[in-house]
Amino acid sequence: MSYTKEHVTQARVLIVGAGIGGLTLAALLEKAGIEYIVFERAKAVVPLGSALSIGANVMPVFEQLGILDEVLKNAKPFGFSTGYNEQREATRVLDYTPAKTIGGYLPHIISRPILYDILLRLVPTHKILMSKKILSLVQNKDGVLIRCSDNTTFHGDILVGADGASSGVRQSLYKNLIKKGELPRSDNAPLPFNSVCLVGQTRPLDPEEFPHFKDWHTWFETIVGENKPYAVSAQVSRLLMPIILCSFLRLPQLLLEVSQVVLEGFKV
Ligand SMILES: Cc1cc2nc3c(=O)[nH]c(=O)nc-3n(C[C@H](O)[C@H](O)[C@H](O)COP(=O)(O)OP(=O)(O)OC[C@H]3O[C@@H](n4cnc5c(N)ncnc54)[C@H](O)[C@@H]3O)c2cc1C
Q1: Is 267 buried (19+), middle (13-18) or exposed (0-12) by CB count in 10 A?
Q2: Given 163, 188, 213, which residue is the final one in a domain?
Q3: Contact between 57 and 103 (Cβ < 8 Å)
Q4: Which residue in 13, 99, 175, 203 has the fewest CB atoms around it within 10 Å?
Q5: At 37, is the pLDDT very low, low, confident or very high (cuts 50, 70, 90)?
Q6: Rounded Cα–Cα distance for residues 153 and 145 (Å)
Q7: Can you give the CATH number for the domain in which 253 is found?
Q8: 100: helix, coil or strand?
């Protein structure tokens, strides 16, 4: 395909993907006064998901963006993450408390849609182009040119692939590197898909019935099934409990059964 001047819009940083990664970068560039555009293939922003655990090392970024207080208001810290067997005996405890000594913060659990909303507010709407699926990229001495599924093209100095685990930007880069024989073999291996993850959350729960909600910190608990192909993780958020079920089999019907075990576990 040949590109004409009319096709080309000038921008400095082109960010593909308006997920948490793309929006965080956009917010930082906005603050730094660097030109950018975000391209998102979805028609509209629909913040989905349940809980996100944010590493302690991310907190200074929120501080820099001026949103730390808002994030902390909506999040709960955790110092430990505990793994249990089915008898609810702790079999593994991960201690995150040294993070506080080293960097000043504990890791936190926050509702993913809330964090997404906080970040989205930092990026002017006109700088996020929706329904723009990036199909290909061409690098040349002047920068990089991307082509979208609606046949529009955009030119920039830097392209950032924030387009998720199956990043098309990365695949395009790899194609070029493969042609030149420069892609390391380990990078050419397909992503392993050996388990299924189901994510959900409870309805808002009554703290009188589930007193763990009154604690200042969250509980990050995992129950590993005995001779069963699944594990369940749950965290206590502000009023509801996000649950993640990881299974090596496609057994979504187990979610109900297992989440009941978790809820009962939190009652005692
Ligand atoms: C069950 C589960 C639990 C997780 N829990 C955590 C956790 O607790 N903490 C944590 O840090 N991480 C967690 N992760 C990983 C987490 O999802 C990622 O850290 C985070 O979402 C990555 O954000 P991202 O912006 O890089 O990518 P994504 O959230 O995947 O966003 C990518 C965006 O790019 C868009 N896009 C894709 N292709 C194109 C294209 N060609 N053109 C234009 N747009 C495109 C997509 O529509 C999407 O909006 C979890 C993942 C799963 C599956």
Answers
A1: exposed
A2: 188
A3: yes
A4: 203
A5: very high
A6: 7
A7: 3.30.9.30
A8: helix
CB 110 within 8 A of CB 74: yes
Overall domain count for the chain:
2
Ligand 1 atom with least separation from CA of 133 = 42
DSSP structure string for 32-78 = HT--EEEE-SSSS-----SEEEE-GGGHHHHHHHT-HHHHHHHEEE-
- In this structure, are residues 188 and 174 in contact, taking their beta carbons and an 8 Å threshold? yes
Residue type, 213: F
CA-CA distance, 73 to 238, in Å (whole number)?
10
Q: How far is CA 87 from CA 14, 83, 228, 265, in A?
A: 51, 11, 14, 10
Tokens of 172: 């395009």
- The pair of structure tokens assigned to 81 is 């993450």
Q: Ligand 1 — pocket residues by CB below 6 A? A: 16-22, 39-42, 52-53, 132-134, 162-164, 168, 197, 199, 244
Q: Which two tokens stand for residue 151?
A: 């046949």
Whether residue 259 sits in one domain with residue 151? no
pLDDT digits (tens, 9 = 90+) for 241-256: 666 656 554 444 455 5
Specify whether the backbone of 186 is left (phi greater than 0), alpha (psi in -120 to 50) or beta.
alpha
Work out which ligand 1 atom sits closest to the CA atom of 109.
8
> pTM score, two decimals?
0.85
What is the distance in A from the centroid of ligand 1 to the CA of 2? Answer: 32
**Which residue range is the domain that position 10 belongs to?**
5-45+130-188
pLDDT of 126-169, one tens digit each? 999 999 999 999 988 889 999 999 999 999 999 999 999 889 99
